[in-house]
Specification:
Elements (H helix, E strand, L loop, with lengths): L4 H4 L4 E5 L3 E3 L1 H9 L8 E9 L4 E12 H9 L12 H11 L7 E4 L6 E3 L2 E2 L4 E2 L5 E3 L1
Parallel strand pairs: 3-5
Antiparallel strand pairs: 1-4, 2-6, 3-4, 6-9, 7-8
Length: 137
């Protein structure tokens, strides 16, 4: 995204959702619209915390980050180095934790605010393995 930063600069927030995730977009929009993102490096999602690393990262099903967080990541290339081979959600959390500039990243947990159902699948595009879904609430 850093390579096309100019084209993304009109957006305040970027949402990443798995293609096997079911959620109500209106519920997500309502929740996100209640948060002021002006000049805030924000990471939102169903958050996990690794105490020994002091790193917060979102579970990969769905998460969002603010334009300011993206700008900070693109400006601080050091934050992005050496993070190959790990899940992209952990990658985003680790990279944001490495940014040295202030203000600090603000974290917003979406637990109990957005209902999502994440199907388990194996891909060659999508094959549902288990008709039972895991509901995160």
């Amino acid at each position: 995204m850093c390579h096309n930063l100019g084209e993304f600069s009109n957006y305040d927030l970027f949402v990443k959702a798995d293609d096997d995730l079911m959620y109500d977009p209106d519920q997500l929009i309502h929740t996100l619209s209640r948060i002021n993102f002006d000049d805030t490096r924000a990471l939102l999602g169903f958050l996990n915390y690794q105490e020994n690393e002091q790193v917060v990262w979102p579970s990969g099903a769905i998460y969002a980050f603010s334009k300011q967080a993206l700008l900070a990541l693109c400006e601080d290339k050091r934050a992005l180095r050496g993070l190959k081979g790990i899940y992209e959600d952990v990658h985003v959390g680790l990279a944001l934790s490495r940014i040295r500039n202030d203000p600090q990243v603000r974290y917003f947990n979406l637990d109990n605010l957005v209902d999502v159902s994440h199907l388990q699948y194996k891909s060659s595009r999508i094959k549902v393995n288990n008709p039972q879904s895991t509901l995160y609430m």
